[in-house]
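Now produce a polypeptide, keeping tokens residue-aligned:
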Amino acid sequence: MKLPTFLFEISQEDSGRFRLVGELSFVSVQTALKKTAVFFDLPAAKMVFDLAGITKADSAGLALLLEWLRLAGLNGVDLHYVNLPRQLLAMAHVAGVDEILIID
């Protein structure tokens, strides 16, 4: 199996829906935050982040999900997550933040 040459990528699938691919880990969260920050400035009432392509996540990834919620709130955007990896859901539950993550 060939390993990806990137750690994190985001692409817009349609208006307000984005596909995330790669890692949400200590190694990649700074890059992920830089690549996603611009999307919170777009005029959108709702955004959906699809995490089906996330292959690895750790506590830094969970912190990033919370930061994205904060940025969305500052910009009046209703942010939803879909296809969260099991490890992220488990960490969110243990941390007691699973109820504030809007998961479709």
